């Protein structure tokens, strides 16, 4: 049996139920663990659809609480296996936080999703009758980084637990049986899963109702309300109050044991995205949580792009210093739907329009050119990957369409040595924008005999490569367009496509996959630069509106200011119209040689117009515009770097246009 086959078999076999404190074998998620270093572990698990508490339809996303439960089980398993905690010692959970970063994560229908947790234990402490620890974990689902979590817990010998339990017990009137609220209101399909009841008249808070026979929430006997049950109730209460809300993460503190027979009151407050929830019993707080919503994305819209711009603005200094997109910005980009924008719909993607992507890139570029550049390229590279064979696409997107793909495909670099079933890829590839946050990387090499060389693109997991941080420029610093190094990385043939295949229309595919690469390459590089130009114009106007001469004359009465603004604003507006026209062609026009060349012409000329316009604004800004943090100058630097991309070269675009135009004329 091959190593990969053996690992697949091992992953499908759960650990013993007693090692994760579960009664039903189906509820055991963990399948094993390996030691990576002192206090560092790799825990493997598997998820399948029958483990979902909530909706279980064909396209139902992964329940984020499945992630939380996996971390909880991993905690118990590691304690027993590696720290010799006796099996009869109860676990007391004091705090839990988690964040699921992949809004489109799904479990394949009829199959399982392989899970890896990279776990780091922090200061494990053993005392007589007690073991205390905390952990931090990174979630990998189907080979894609999908979230992070942390947990704090104690394990106690039974005698100590009984003492603690007795001291913390609360008393009161028993809770009468409560009818559930409507299942759909709680975000559930089955009434048996509903944990909420309406409160008394005049009390907007919910009441907790418990079904002690529930096969998931009460899998094994407990003398108190399980923490995961409270967390599920918090999720349901928030869903009932905010119907469009979807759980994305939580930070929970557990303060006391909840008695099974006493009433529990659940209060929900918040703004519809970040929610505060508390559970009270006998006037005492049992648990408090701050829940974060997750935007389940579709088409790129201004409402979805706005949080990305806000995140980029807040992280501007970090982005510039670290020369890459910070984690919070990357998460916002993913949640907005950039990575999935051109992913085929059969994998849960949007298969969206070029116009929507251009609008989003322009809007984002007005705040941060680097973020707009990387966001647009994550979308563009998903479109290229849609040309891979079916098996290759499945490997990329079977778990989620929100896979960030970086690329270094022009020109071909490195070597691809044929071996049985694929190639061994080696070498270095420069200028891979956004690669630090990428899950996969597209790398191109020359293949085939010397008499018939082909430009071939391969998809490689980012974890199989090394990123050398070679990007240190004056402009576009946050793109992190670094160098990728691979050494004898095996790539199967189902993860390759020849560049020539990207030139051929695909009439049986969605419109975004029918358009040949040269028709849209320039468009996706030009859009962020148009946004930067519009942002530069806005900032320049704001400065001039407040400026007066030494004689007190407002700048609006200065003819030089008038000439500069009139010329630059007209050029930027012309650039906008050219890109709108190019996006419309890409979405709707017949794919002809002339249409392709017109798009190349328009994207190149739009970029040149915008660069000329901002250059004029910078020169007219005066000495104050030379400050290192001047926003107009910073955008000018970004545009100078971005406009140097080969896809926007005016000479090549002009040559392509004249060939197509004159050939058409000659044929007529």
From TrEMBL:
InterPro entries: Acyl-CoA_dehydrogenase, Acyl-CoA_DH_C, Acyl-CoA_Oxase/DH_mid-dom_sf, AcylCo_DH-like_C, AcylCoA_DH/ox_N, AcylCoA_DH/ox_N_sf, AcylCoA_DH/oxidase_NM_dom_sf, AfsA-like. Gene3D superfamilies: Acyl-CoA dehydrogenase/oxidase, N-terminal domain, Butyryl-CoA Dehydrogenase, subunit A, domain 2, Butyryl-CoA Dehydrogenase, subunit A, domain 3. Residues 310-389 form the Acyl-CoA dehydrogenase/oxidase N-terminal domain. Residues 19-135, 190-290 form the A-factor biosynthesis hotdog domain. Residues 523-648 form the Acyl-CoA dehydrogenase C-terminal domain. NCBIfam families: ScbA_BarX_GamBu. This is Alkylation response protein AidB-like acyl-CoA dehydrogenase. It comes from Amycolatopsis roodepoortensis.
């Amino acid at each position: 049996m091959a190593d990969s086959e053996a690992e697949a078999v091992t992953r499908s076999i759960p650990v013993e139920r007693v090692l994760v404190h579960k009664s039903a074998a189906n509820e055991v998620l963990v399948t094993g663990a390996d030691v990576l270093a002192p206090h560092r572990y790799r825990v493997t698990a598997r998820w399948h659809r029958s483990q979902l508490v909530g909706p279980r339809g064909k396209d139902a996303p992964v329940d984020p609480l499945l992630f939380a439960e996996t971390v909880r089980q991993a905690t118990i398993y590691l304690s027993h296996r590696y720290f010799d905690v006796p099996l009869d010692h109860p676990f007391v959970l004091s705090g839990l936080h988690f964040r699921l970063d992949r809004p489109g994560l799904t479990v394949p229908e009829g199959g399982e999703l392989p899970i890896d947790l990279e776990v780091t234990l922090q200061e494990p402490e053993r005392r007589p009758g007690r073991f205390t620890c905390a952990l931090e974990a990174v979630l990998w689902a189907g080979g894609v980084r999908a979230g992070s979590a942390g947990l704090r817990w104690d394990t106690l010998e039974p005698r100590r637990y009984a003492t603690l339990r007795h001291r913390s017990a609360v008393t009161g009137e028993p809770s009468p049986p409560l009818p559930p609220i409507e299942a759909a209101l709680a975000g559930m399909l089955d009434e048996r899963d509903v944990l909420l009841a309406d409160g008394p008249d005049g009390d907007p808070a919910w009441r907790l109702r418990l079904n002690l026979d529930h096969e998931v929430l009460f899998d094994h006997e407990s003398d108190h309300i399980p923490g995961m049950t409270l967390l599920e109730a918090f999720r349901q209460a928030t869903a009932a109050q905010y119907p469009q809300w979807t759980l994305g993460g939580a930070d929970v503190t557990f303060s006391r044991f909840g008695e099974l027979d006493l009433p529990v009151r659940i209060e929900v407050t918040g703004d519809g995205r970040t929610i505060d929830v508390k559970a009270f019993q006998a006037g005492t707080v049992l648990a408090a949580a701050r829940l974060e919503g997750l935007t389940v994305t579709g088409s790129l819209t201004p409402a979805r792009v706005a949080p990305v711009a806000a995140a980029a603005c807040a992280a501007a200094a970090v982005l510039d210093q670290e020369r890459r997109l910070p984690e919070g910005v990357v998460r916002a980009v993913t949640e907005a739907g950039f990575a999935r924008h051109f992913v085929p719909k059969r994998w849960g993607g949007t298969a969206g329009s070029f116009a929507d992507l251009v609008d989003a890139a322009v809007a984002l570029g007005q705040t941060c050119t680097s973020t707009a550049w990387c966001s647009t390229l994550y979308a563009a590279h998903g479109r290229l990957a849609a040309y891979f064979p079916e098996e290759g696409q499945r490997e990329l997107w079977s778990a989620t369409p929100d896979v960030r793909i970086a690329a270094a495909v022009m020109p071909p670099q490195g070597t691809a040595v044929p071996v049985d079933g694929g190639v061994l890829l080696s070498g270095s590839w420069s200028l891979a924008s956004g690669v630090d946050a990428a899950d996969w990387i597209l790398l191109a090499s020359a293949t085939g005999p010397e008499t018939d060389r082909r430009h071939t693109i391969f998809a490689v997991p980012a974890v199989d490569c090394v990123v050398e941080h070679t990007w240190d420029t004056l402009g576009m610093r946050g793109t992190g367009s670094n160098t990728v190094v691979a050494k004898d990385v095996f790539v199967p043939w189902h993860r390759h496509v020849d560049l020539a295949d990207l030139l051929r229309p695909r009439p049986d595919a969605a419109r975004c996959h029918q358009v040949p690469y040269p028709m849209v390459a320039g468009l996706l590089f030009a859009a962020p630069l148009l946004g930067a130009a519009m942002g530069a114009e806005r900032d320049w106007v704001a400065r001039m509106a407040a400026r007066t001469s030494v004689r007190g004359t407002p700048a609006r009465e200065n003819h030089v200011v008038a000439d500069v603004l009139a010329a630059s604003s007209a050029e930027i507006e012309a650039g906008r119209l050219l890109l709108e026209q190019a996006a419309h062609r890409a979405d709707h026009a017949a794919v002809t040689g002339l249409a392709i060349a017109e798009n190349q012409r328009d994207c190149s000329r739009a970029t040149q117009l915008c660069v000329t316009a901002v250059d004029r604004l910078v020169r007219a800004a005066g000495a104050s515009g030379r400050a290192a943090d001047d926003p107009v100058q910073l955008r000018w630097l970004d545009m100078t770097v971005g406009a140097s991309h080969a896809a926007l070269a005016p000479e090549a675009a002009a040559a392509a246009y004249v060939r197509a135009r004159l050939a058409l004329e000659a044929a007529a």
